[in-house]
Design brief:
This protein is of the alpha/beta class and 303 residues long. It has 10 helices and 11 strands. 41% of the residues are buried.
Length: 303
């Protein structure tokens, strides 16, 4: 997919801690490539948009790849998995990032628009259940988490904590993490289950936003990709059922199948990737790029 030169600029809707990374990528886009004797008509642009869970990883990959291949410039934006997939369907991006699988209705819409989504698993992730450090609760079953988020359980004392109201935090509905959590946790993976998030659930626009609220609110519970968990929040051990052991999220517990809230992370292209887009995807799947996955707290894929 060819894009106009006016779209060279990197526009990234992310939190303040990543601004330095954006500046580095911008410097690479506007300086290193052209100064190395590459003319503007030799520049290849890849538009990459979607999952906010993946955006930090996509930025890190883009920064490194542009050093290795200065003739390729990457524009990385977040906005949510649904936003990225919609952009792929509309033909406005080359690669859509998604923290959930594309839906059947999205595939149908894509085919109607002469787009043929091609799926690539680029990493794995665990969804960590997080609370404030002052919260005495250490363990929850999937059934308890579902009951909390559906509004059946409303006080921490009902799950062994203090007599405090539970403040539920979630990503917004365009987030692939929101969709995955609804399907696999709130609805316990049952396709016939139509349970919804409690109406009192606070919908936040970013993973960083959930983490910030968790650190400030002793009554809050949230969920985030493992790469967004810090020492300033408490991670809850999760059991698949009351009879199963409680497991904490880690690369090891994801790879051995023990942690019950784990998922693949995806990139989608219009048809099987070719040319310089294929070269970029191949590099993402390489051992070198997968080391960055580990560095950012996600789980690398193995070939």
């Amino acid at each position: 997919m060819s894009l106009p030169l006016s779209q060279y600029n990197l526009i990234v809707k992310i939190s303040r801690p990543l601004l330095s990374l954006v500046i580095i990528i911008l410097a690479g886009c506007t300086g290193s490539g052209l100064s190395a004797g590459i003319s503007s008509d030799q520049i290849k642009i890849i538009e990459n948009k979607g999952s906010d869970t993946i955006v930090n990883l996509a930025l890190a990959w883009a920064e490194e790849y542009q050093v290795l291949n200065p003739s390729v410039q990457l524009s990385v934006t977040g906005g949510g998995s649904g936003t990225g997939i919609a952009a792929l369907i509309n033909g406005t991006v080359d690669i859509a990032n998604a923290s959930r699988k594309i839906k059947s209705e999205e595939i149908e819409t894509a085919l109607e628009n002469n787009s043929d989504p091609y799926e690539i698993v680029i990493a794995r992730d665990a969804i960590a259940i997080i609370v404030n450090l002052a919260n005495p609760v250490d363990y929850l079953t999937l059934q308890q988490i579902s009951a909390i988020y559906s509004g059946e359980i409303n006080n921490w004392k009902e799950v062994g904590g203090e007599d405090r109201p539970i403040v539920r935090l979630s990503r917004e509905t365009n987030s692939g993490t929101h969709v995955y959590f609804l399907d696999e946790v709130v609805r316990l993976g049952d396709d016939e289950n139509k349970t919804l998030f409690s109406q009192t659930t606070l919908l936040l626009p970013s993973s960083e936003g959930i983490g910030t609220e968790i650190k400030q609110n002793p009554n809050a519970i949230g969920y985030d990709g493992l790469g967004y968990v810090t020492h300033e929040m408490k991670v809850i051990g999760v059991a698949s059922s009351p009879d199963d052991p409680f497991i904490f999220p880690s690369a090891e517990s994801v790879n051995n199948g023990e942690y019950p809230i784990a998922r693949d992370l995806y990139m989608y292209t219009n048809g099987e990737p070719e040319g310089f887009i294929k070269d970029y995807i191949d590099w993402i799947l390489s051992a070198e790029a997968q080391e960055i996955v580990t560095e950012l707290g996600f789980v690398p894929i193995t070939k």
